[in-house]
Amino acid sequence: MKKIILFFLLITSSFVKPQYQDEFYNYPFAFGIVKTFIMHSLNPIGGIVTTSEGERKYEKNPTAFSITLWNEWNQTGKWAFNLIFKSQFLNDFVPVIVSAINSQDENKSTGPWFCSILEFNCGLNFYYDRTTRAAAGLSANSFVVNIWDSQGNYNAQRGSYMNLGPYINGDYLLSNEWMLKGSFQMVFPVVKFNEVKEAKNPYFVNFTTGIMNNNGLYFGIDYTIILGMTDSATKKEGPSLSGSRLEIKLAWFLDF
Length: 256
Description:
Elements (H helix, E strand, L loop, with lengths): L1 H12 L15 E12 L7 E4 L2 E4 L5 E12 L6 E6 L1 H15 L10 E16 L3 E15 L12 E15 L4 E17 L8 E11 L3 E11 L2 E2 L4 E2 L5 E12 L2
Antiparallel strand pairs: 1-4, 1-14, 2-3, 4-5, 5-6, 6-7, 7-8, 8-9, 9-10, 10-11, 11-14, 12-13
């Protein structure tokens, strides 16, 4: 009976709320591995697209496996400052190099790609207690959109966008050992460098959620949806043409 009671106490102790969540903010730098999935609903006719190197087979939903790193700096307390800095370009560095090499091979396929070159989120904690932190602020990023239209030519919206918009993020303590993390942002282009200047601007919605251990171990997803996309060949537009980028991350927060 004593063994059963001891086992029960060991199991339930991990679900006892800690007094403070401060210890989870001692690790500002995250480093790990990431699996990326690119999805776009538009399929060029015949499965062939034209690139600067010539015609290539079209790969609808490319994936990549790489490393990831980002920085989160959180101050504790209400109205305290918080900052998140990350770059999907760093995640994509190796896959992009491989893709550039493959682009010279006419037997290799190519596909859409969406990538945030740089992302910067800053805000203030508007709510903070023993178990919960909620913050709101401003998000800025530069996003690259590489897509084709239904005829296999570069889409008019292809290019890079400098975006700005609101964001919210927060944390919730699940137990002494585990914290739930999440954020949401919606950004809109303020400057663009795309294929056709008059093309309609897309906008970008991002959801991030994950679970973190108090030793720094982290598992989460980062999901970006690109809305307002059009087919420049047919002028069709709508949510059915949206693109997305899904990242599944296994990382470790460290204190350098």
